[in-house]
Every structure is written in structure tokens, then in C-alpha cells.
């Protein structure tokens, strides 16, 4: 017990060597703002990354078969043959003909009531879900299989027409990662400036400590600790506010009911990575402060 | 007695100015008591700065405790500095620390256990007559009180060399006499004392003390720089 008390007293005495209070007044607030933006950017990057992965996995294994036959009866017959052929094909997990009524409902906003009049030839559609892996090769095999049935059959892999969207989401994800990196660099720069300012304003005390035989590391530890406290305060505040914003935005995304927007989500592993940001921010601030003060001390005798 | 400090042809120049110290050579022996005198601007403080390792010379050789400290790597300097106590002319007390914490600084810097800090600091506070002012900040102390704290801080770690720059400049005659008694007591315990002062009567109080006089950056008598002050000669020093 007395050993612990002694260590605490020694630590308290060491901490008093620099004046109490923040090293640089606005530091915690600046770090809070930067951490807030960093966490938001990271969450966006992780969410978009999850969406791209989910979309890629989903789209890679799906295709739509179009039966482009003008005559309704011939189209129905051909559809039935195609569906039968698909069910017997290798690499096909699921075959589901799109209900013509559903298709008409979806086309009505663009084609009006003509979509259901029967005068307008609308292709029959069959959704195909492939078994996992080698999606491109399986689609090619289906094309060869179905081309033997009729030249009026088209096979459209979903990945082909949603590829640009996945590319956009991926680009946005990388942009978010770049912003996180820039914010980390900016945080380091802010800490370096704050540490330099603190070093300058405590030059007299540092000189006295030096002349009494304090080592550079002993002095750097004082600044490191003080800046770590600032960084901890700022990082936790920034993270807490950002987490609230992310949760609110997540609730709004779910409320849209959109399958596409719903793909942008944060699994628990992403939250763990987000939680690592304030910890990383504190470590970064400590290292930047230590490096700055040691460099400044190294220039003195 | 062996030489604890050796200066050989030491010169010190600040920037592009002319040399503040030129061709300074002398030796101080362990356990000696030395006064450094000279007019204002003669270079006393600059010489002391070289001695307590706040400055490196522009030329020449300085040996402390048998080692050349001019070429010594920076990382080894703290070990040497802990063996030297300094009373600065402007005190250099840490303004946000109490008198107690200022005096405790050298012990804490040296890594002394906190439980062992209190007794010597309290004893030292009582000795300099500030037993009831331990928690006072320097700004609330008078000049004389600040100087006493500075002296207590310099001697608390029992340094091998004590360097004092005008230590009696802000204290009354009684306190000056008590300080000299403390310095002599430390000297008897083996500490080498170097005091820069204008106060010639003070020099006479210390039996056996030797004197160096600086004149315009040079030791006034390079051939035999260390002299007994007139009054102490009478005391058989």
C-alpha cells in the first residue's frame, strides 16, 4: 500500500513539473473536431466497402435470362423450355421466372397502361442464381446451352450492369480512406505545433531541469503525458459525437427501405476498427509530442 | 588533492562578437574553496556557465572529474550535471512550483524515492529559515527568500562541486554569513565550492579560500592565477 502511495506521490510530483492545465488551450477541441471527421470518414469508407463486398458477392452469382419473342404464346412456351433447361444445368442454384404482372407493374411508370395491354411485346424474364465461384465461366456455359434452344434468348449477368455503381462505391471508399490518412497527418501536424509551442513557453523550466541533470527523455515524458491527456479528452469527445451521428444516419438509411442503401452498413468488426481510431489518435499524439520535444531538446546543449 | 576541474586555453565567443573569455587556464582541486572575482562584464558568469555545463567553449579543453567535457556526447552530460549544484544569479526558480518542490527538484530528477524526499527538503527549508514558507510560490517570496530557496536547491543533493553566482547579492549580512557557514560546512564534507562575488569582505571570512580574478575575459595573473585573498592569508590559509 505504502509503495503504491509512494509511486503515486512520485508521479504527482513529476507531473507538477509542468504547469497544471492544458498545454495548449484549444488542443483538445481541435483534436475532437479532427477525430469526429476522421471517424465519420472511416465509417463511410468501411460502410461503402461492406456495401461493395456485399454487392459484388450478390451480383457475381446472379444473371437474368431474357426471352425476346414477340408472340405471347411462343414466348410462354420458350420460357418454359428455358426454365426447364436451366434447372437441369450445372452451376445453377435457383431458377425463378419473373411474374409478368410484376414486370408490367414495374414498367407502367414508363410505358403507361400500354405495358399491360398485351399489344406491346415485353420480353419474359427469368432470374438465375448461380452456385458459388467461377461466375463468368458459368454464365458462358449458360449462354452456350441456351443459344441451342433459340437465338431469341439473352443472358445478362447482373455484375455487368451494376459494375459501374460498384466502381463508384469502391472509389468513394478509397476516397474516405485517403481522408482518414490526411486527417491522421493533420492531427500529427497539430500536435507537433502544439508541442513546439509548449516547449517554447516552458523553455525556462526545461533549462533549469536540464542543468540539474534531467535527461531529454525525462523532460519529453512530461510533455508526452500532458499532450496524451489532451488527445484522450479530444479523441473520446470526437468519437462519441461521431458514433451518435453514425447511429442516427444508420437508422435513416434503414428507414429508406432501399436494398442498395441498406447494403451500406457497419458490422461489429468495423466498429472495432472505428474504436481503434481514438486509441491510435492518442498514441499518434504521444509519439508526435515525444519526437518534437526530443528534437527540440537535441538542439540545446 | 587531485584536480577536479581543469581549464586549458579556454576561449568563449558568443556569435561573431569578440571573445568573452580568452586563454583561460586553471585547475581546481577537489575539496577546495574558490572565489571568482572581477568587475561586471569581466566574464565571471560566462566562466561559471562553462563550469556547470550550460555552455561549451569555442576553443580549449575543459576537464571535469578527469573527463574532457568539451567533446563529451550530449547524452552523458546529465550524469555530470547531477554532480554539480548551481546557485544562479537570477535564482531561476520554477515559478509554478512551491518553495518545497523547487528545493526537491534535484532529488526528484535524480530519481530519489518520494518517501525519502521529505526529510532532507524539510531540513533544508528550516535551515534557510523558510520552514513555514514551504508551500509558497516564488512570486510570493521576497528576493532574499527566493535566493535562499535557490541556495537550498543547489546544495540539497550534496553536489561534488557547488557553483554560486553572486549568492549573497540579495541577502542581509547575517544571512550572508550563515550562507558562508553552510558553504564551509559543505566544503568540509568534501564539496568543492566556487563562488563568484564582488563582496571582498566575504572572501576574507573563509579561511583557506583561494581567489581567481577575471579582467576583460582573461585571468588577471595567468602565470599564477590562484591566489589567497589578502584577509585569508592572515588566517594562515
Instruction: Write down the CATH class of chain B.
Output: Alpha Beta
Low-confidence stretches of chain B: 229-237
The DSSP helix count of chain B reads: 8
Shape of chain A: rod-shaped
Total count of strands of chain A: 4
CATH H level of chain B: which superfamily? P-loop containing nucleotide triphosphate hydrolases
Helicity range of chain B: 25-40%
Structural class of chain B: alpha/beta
* Strand residues, percent of chain A: 5-15%
Pfam families (chain B): ABC_tran
Family (chain B): Belongs to the ABC transporter superfamily.
Keywords (chain B): ATP-binding, Cell cycle, Cell division, Cell membrane, Membrane, Nucleotide-binding, Transport
Protein name (chain B): Cell division ATP-binding protein FtsE
Nutshell version of this structure?
The complex is a heterodimer of chains A (301) and B (237). With 301 residues, chain A is α+β, with helices and mostly antiparallel strands.
Question: Can you walk through the features of this model?
Answer:
The complex is a heterodimer of chains A (301) and B (237). Helix content of chain A is 72%, strand content 8%. Chain A is an alpha+beta fold and 301 residues long. In chain A, strands 2-3-1-4 form a 4-stranded antiparallel sheet. Chain A is rod-shaped, with a radius of gyration of 31 Å. Chain A binds chain B through residues 2, 6-7, 9-10, 13-14, 16-17, 19-20, 204-205, 207-216, 218, 298, 301, and chain B through 52-56, 74-75, 77-82, 86, 92, 94-97, 101, 104-106, 108-110, 113-115, 117.
